[in-house]
Amino acid sequence: MRRICAYFISTLAIILSSFSQLICQDTLTFPLKINAGIEVLGPVTYFIDKNQLSLEGYVSVDLSEKWAVALNTGYLDYEYSQYNYIYLTNGFFIRAGADFNILKPKKSLGKYWGGIGLRYGLSRFHWEVPEFSQSNYWGKSASSIPSDINWGHFIEASPGMRAEIFRNFSMGWSVSLRMLLYTGTGNDQKPIYLPGFGKAEKRFSTGFSYFIVWNIPYKKIRVITIEEEPEEPDEGEETDRSAGTETPGFRPQQSGNNPR
Question: What pLDDT does residue 134 have?
Answer without folding.
Answer: 72
